[in-house]
Design goal:
4-stranded antiparallel β-sheet, alpha/beta, 2 domains, 13 strands, 7-stranded mixed β-sheet, Aspartate Aminotransferase, domain 1, binds pyridoxal-5'-phosphate, single chain, Aspartate Aminotransferase, domain 2
Length: about 400
């Protein structure tokens, strides 16, 4: 009864397992999904807060980390932690940079002038969250006409209070990989930590990045990277990784206290108690796919993205904001005065599709993964119909505000 009620509750949810969602969810195959869910169930009530009690979870986290370290071409000194995902990783990067700055420059500096993080306007909102939580200035630098970070402008925006530089591989909104070699060089020269957010790309770019698109620890000056297993690792939600170039950099993000009546308390991340489920799910899928499996998944998702991009470019009312570097697509209206892309998104919902809406500029956003491999024709047909219907409703301004990316 309770379980059938749960089934009933989800009747209006988007059918992501059928490839109807270009957002929020990822699905590799029924078999992988079942493996992930079984592994999750086995460890769902185990607590990763204290791996002394659960050496299994310690081992699994180390195995997942080792796998990701290899994909990122991390140095032998590379060290990291599993996190609950991109947002926690990025908040921790800001926190770690703040702690390092306080350790190096003294706490009085924080009160005198305040610190800042220099990042492109495209870097993920979770960095804004981190800066807000720790009262640090988020110094956003406009991206270039190609949506990529403006390396010169970012370095020009740094001053003696800059504690962190950030680039993305790729950035979420338009899906392009930022150039980063000049920033890396300058970050190293000025001794500023430099984070590359590869939450989206970390499990894709090892297999699809062209040679002339450096994005990982092979870039001099990169001090940390974030990668999500619950995106293109296809694991259950709650699995990410943060990797530092060495343990000295990593130590600033860990937290230890004895200032209460409960003894020594330590944790590597923001959460205290955390489920072993996501860790077991990520571990199981890393074993299941391995490097070769993830290569196949990445190439399939990339091929599907390029097919979609090609088909979308043939629809005269729409325009691709840029050619995709990875598996993210950003779509605008050829003439925004005639067509609201947000109305197109609402019409797509009528056909069961869920796509993200974002601004500025007003755009649709698609996160493509292997579940969409055989969905291209069906989606494109419905997209054309959605455009026609939206054109008829173009005076209907009630629906023109985009749906938010998250919820409160
Ligand atoms: C580039 C990038 N960084 C960070 C995040 C945040 O990840 P999460 O929502 O899993 O916390 C996302 C999410 O899409 C992302 O695309």
């Amino acid at each position: 009864m309770i379980l059938s009620n749960l089934e009933q509750l989800r009747v209006n949810d988007v059918r992501w397992r059928d490839g109807k969602a270009f957002s929020l969810t990822y699905s590799a195959s029924d078999e992988a999904q079942q493996l992930s869910e079984t592994a999750y169930r086995m460890f769902s009530h185990e607590n990763a807060l204290n791996v002394g009690a659960f050496p299994s979870l310690k081992r699994m986290q180390q195995d997942v980390l080792d796998f990701v370290l290899q994909l990122l071409q991390a140095p032998a000194s590379g060290a990291g932690f599993m996190t609950s995902g991109g947002t926690e990783s990025l908040i921790l990067v800001v926190y770690g940079a703040l702690q390092r700055a306080i350790a190096q420059r003294g706490p009085e500096r924080l009160n005198e002038q305040g610190f800042n993080v220099v990042l492109p306007s495209s870097a993920h909102a979770a960095l804004e969250k981190g800066c807000t939580y720790f009262n640090i200035e988020s110094r956003r630098v406009p991206v270039g006409a190609d949506w990529r970070a403006d390396e010169q402008a970012m370095i020009a925006a740094c001053d003696e209070n800059t504690i962190l530089l950030v680039c993305s591989a790729p950035q979420y909104p338009q899906g392009v990989v930022d150039p980063m070699e000049f920033i890396g060089k300058e970050a190293q020269r000025r001794d500023i930590p430099f984070h590359v957010d590869a939450c989206m790309g970390g499990m894709l770019l090892p297999f699809i990045a062209p040679r002339d698109m450096p994005w990982n620890f092979s870039v001099s000056g990169v001090t940390s990277m974030s990668v999500d297993l619950h995106k293109y690792g296809y694991s259950a939600k709650g699995a990410g990784v943060i990797v530092y170039a060495n343990k000295e950099l990593r130590q600033h993000q860990t937290f230890l206290t004895t200032n209460w009546l409960g003894g020594m308390y330590g944790s590597s991340g923001i959460l205290g108690t955390k489920s072993g489920g996501p860790i077991a799910s990520a571990w199981a899928l890393v074993q299941y796919f391995g490097v070769d499996g993830y290569r196949t998944l990445a190439l399939t998702a990339r091929k599907t993205t390029l097919e979609l991009a090609h088909q979308i470019s043939l629809i005269p009312e729409l325009v691709l904001r840029t050619q995709p570097d990875t598996t993210l697509l950003c779509i605008g209206a050829q003439n925004p005065n005639l067509l609201s892309v947000f109305l197109v998104a609402r019409e797509l919902r009528e056909f069961g599709w869920f796509v993200d809406e974002q601004t500025p500029p007003d755009s649709l956003h698609l996160t493509v993964n292997v579940v969409h491999e055989n969905k291209v024709d069906e989606f494109i047909n419905d997209l054309k119909k959605a455009v026609e219907r939206a054109l008829l409703r173009s005076s209907d301004s009630a629906f023109e505000a985009p749906l938010p990316y998250g919820s409160v």
